[in-house]
Amino acid sequence: MAATDDVRLRFDHVSIAVKSIDRAYEFFAKYFPIKLRSAKSIDEQVSGSFYWQDFHLGGFVVELIEDPPGKPGFVTNFIERHGEGMHHLSIETDGLDALVANLKAGGVRVVDEQNYESGSATAFISPRSAFGALIQFWHTQNWEQAHPKPAPDSLAHFDHVSLAVKDIAAAYNFFTRYFPGTKTHEIHISNSEGNFSLGHLEVAGFKLEFIQSPPHKTDNDFVGKFIARYGEGMHHVSIDLKNFDETREKLKRDGVRVVDEKRNWRGERQYFISPQSAFGVLIQVWDGLN
C-alpha cells in the first residue's frame, strides 16, 4: 500500500538546532520579513526536554530548538557532532499508525515513537533510511483545523530545502514510494556551471530539491565535498527575497559573510549567506520577487 492511498500529509516546518534561540531569532528577524508563530516554550519528547520557538518566513515555518540551560540533551548532542544547523523536517499527518506500519513493512527505520495524552503522536524516520534527513511526523486529530498562516506579504517566498545525496534517482524512488511526491523537475545537470546534478519533488505540499555530483569530473564538486565531510543530508534552504539588494548590503555592513554572488544562465541574481554567519544554515537568496 502506498502512503498516499489513505493517509494525508502536509509539510509543517524545518527545524534548526541552535545554541541560543534568542540569538538565532534575532538574526532572522533582523534580515528577513518573519512573523512569530509560537513563543518560546519547553517541550518533552522521547529524546528529552528542549526549548522551541517558530516563525513564518515566506509562506513556510522555521522552528528553532535548543536544550535547557545546564541540561545538555539531544540538541547539544547534535551540535557537538554536526555543529548548529538544520536538524529535521516535520510533516503533519492524520494517519500516523498506518503511515508507520507502511514504512516499517518496507524496512524503513522508524525511531522515537511517542503518544501524548492529548491524542497527538509523533514518530521519526531515521536519517539512515532517508538519505541523511531526519523526518518527523506529527499525528493531528483535527486535520481540518490547520495552523493559521499570515496573509502573503509579497516580501519573501521560502522556495525549497535542498538535500545533498549520492543518487537522486534512488531518493526520488524513496520519497515517491512513501510520500505523496510529484516530480516537478526531472534530473538534469545544472545549466549554469555544470558542476552538479539536480531534481525537484513536491512532497506533502512542499518543494524538496535533490543535488548530487555530476556524472563527469569537475574542479568544483561541492556536493561530493559536502557528502565526504558531513554525509548525505540537508544542504541549504532557498528563499526569494524582494529586498534583495538592500538585505545584501545590510548583511555586509553588519559583517555577515555573503558568498557566491552570481547570476544563473537565465540572468537571475543570487547570493548565499554562509552557515558560519547563519547558525549553521547555508541560505540561498534569490532576487525572485521583483
Describe the structure.
- The protein is an alpha+beta fold and 290 residues long.
- Helix content is 21%, strand content 41%.
- The chain is built from 6 helices and 16 strands.
- It has helices spanning 21-31, 74-82, 96-105, 168-178, 222-230, 244-253, and strands at residues 9-17, 34-45, 48-57, 60-66, 85-93, 110-115, 121-125, 135-139, 156-164, 181-189, 197-203, 206-212, 233-241, 258-263, 269-273, 283-286.
- Strands 2-3-4-1-5-8-7-6 form an 8-stranded mixed beta sheet. An 8-stranded mixed beta sheet has the order 10-11-12-9-13-16-15-14.
- The chain is globular and about 50 Å long.
Task: Summarize the SSE layout with pairings.
Elements: E1 9-17, H1 21-31, E2 34-45, E3 48-57, E4 60-66, H2 74-82, E5 85-93, H3 96-105, E6 110-115, E7 121-125, E8 135-139, E9 156-164, H4 168-178, E10 181-189, E11 197-203, E12 206-212, H5 222-230, E13 233-241, H6 244-253, E14 258-263, E15 269-273, E16 283-286
Parallel strand pairs: 1-4, 5-8, 9-12, 13-16
Antiparallel strand pairs: 1-5, 2-3, 3-4, 6-7, 7-8, 9-13, 10-11, 11-12, 14-15, 15-16
